[in-house]
Design a protein that fits this description.
single chain; alpha/beta; six-stranded mixed beta sheet; 12 helices
């Protein structure tokens, strides 16, 4: 028997996608009132993403009159033919929920549809707990085992929320995962207690661009009185770990040569990249996430014009936790309230109501800012400079154990 999902359309995409991520269906029908249904663009995106990722077709049923009776009549009209209809009450308009109650009352405990032979046309009613990814059956029964539907990608969820994933960072093509992992860990340990000096060093201007000259040297110019002392300290750390083969401070300039051990050039260009990639490594190690990206560029409205004024946002690390996008801002400095507002705003815009906004900081967070993070729903992992990799992983797992209601090992 075919399984059809009847989904009450909601402005939040997590409400629309949760059932599709937990059980295989042969078709999905979105039910909505005309006044608050999806736009033509969102409707097209939903159909495209669901067809491409899940291989099923999508229908939209609009109810023009906003009333329980109209909603009930539409429900009766769409539940027909030889199929089992799984009605999901997660999200959606309360009038539809009332209409489903009328449907249950009319057909009793059997779950057969009006005017149809019960074995041929049946229905059930359920809802879902989104962060925990659990189904709760309220009426009837599911037709069979859920199966394992294909996963929706981070880029899919971002596009359905009106944005667009443009690009992400990464290692050089000839760098193996093992090489990258080793380089990230060793570089982090070399610099983790020097966040201020590393920030200063990475802000020093280049003499002739970021690429090495014909002798492999990179040159940077000093502009402040203590730039030489800061550079000396950083160079000593990098030399001791084998990332610098040689360096020389000559007047107002620093000249140095990266060793063959320094495979991932981006790690040495921006101060925050080391923390970003260390965060991505720790998150990946937890085994909780389906996707992990660093240095992600997102187009704000999903319409790429190519013009300089086209608004884009850069995210340090992004993850996929079930169907929930996780947007992480990494700071090599003390977290401020402004940082919290920034990541919360981006999470709400690109990921919706259930998106996880997260702040990772190498420094300890002041208590007033920590309290503000709780109030705003921003997850905080701080003082990373004093955490071992194992402790960092445990802190991330703790965040998502709380989000999932105490069960961190949910299916990815």
């Amino acid at each position: 028997m075919k399984k059809v999902l009847v989904e009450l359309y909601d402005a939040d995409m997590s409400e629309n996608l949760i059932s599709l991520s937990l059980r295989e269906y042969d078709r999905v029908m979105f039910l909505c009132f005309s006044e608050n249904g999806p736009s033509t663009r969102i409707r097209s995106l939903l159909q495209s993403v669901i067809r491409r990722r899940l291989g099923i077709e999508t229908d939209f049923w609009e109810v023009r009159e906003r009333s329980v009776d109209a909603a009930y009549s539409t429900l009766k009209a769409l539940i027909k033919g030889e199929a089992h209809y799984c009605i999901d009450l997660t999200g959606g308009d309360e009038l539809f929920i009332a209409a489903v109650g009328m449907l249950i009352k009319e057909h009793g405990s059997a779950g057969g549809a009006a005017g149809q032979n019960a074995p041929r046309t049946t229905f059930s009613v359920h809802s879902c707990r989104i962060p925990a990814r659990r189904e709760e059956l309220h009426f009837g029964r599911f037709p069979d085992a859920p199966g394992k539907p294909p996963a929706l990608a981070f880029s899919d969820v971002i596009s359905l929320n009106g944005g667009k994933m443009l690009e992400e960072g990464g290692a050089e093509p000839d760098t193996t995962p093992e090489m990258l992992r080793r380089e990230i860990i060793q570089l982090w340990h070399a610099l983790r207690d020097l966040p201020t000096e590393w920030n200063r060093f990475c802000s020093l201007p280049y003499v002739e661009g970021t690429l090495p000259d014909e002798k492999g040297r990179i040159s940077r110019r000093f502009s402040k009185s203590d730039d030489a002392a800061v550079s000396e300290r950083v160079m000593q750390r990098l030399s001791k770990r084998g990332f610098i083969s040689s360096y020389r401070i000559d007047g107002s300039e620093l000249r140095y040569v990266l060793s063959e051990k320094a495979h991932t050039r981006n790690l040495y260009l921006m101060a925050g990249t080391v923390l970003e990639m260390y965060t991505a490594l720790a998150a990946t190690d937890t085994g909780l996430f389906r996707e992990c990206h660093t240095e992600v560029l997102l187009d704000y409205d999903g319409v790429v014009s190519g013009k300089p004024a086209d608004p884009v946002n850069e995210l340090d690390v992004t993850l996929m936790y079930g169907i929930l996008p996780v947007l992480i801002s990494c700071k090599n400095t003390t977290v401020t309230k402004e940082f919290l507002y920034e990541i919360r705003t981006m999470a709400d815009h690109f990921g919706g109501r259930y998106a996880v906004a997260m702040m990772v900081s190498s420094r300890e967070t002041p208590e007033p800012v920590r309290e503000r993070a709780k109030e705003m729903g921003v997850e905080l992992v701080d003082n990373v400079q004093d955490l071992t990799l194992s402790e960092f992983r445990a802190a991330i797992r703790g965040v998502f154990a709380s989000i999932a209601g105490g069960k961190e090992t949910i299916s990815k």
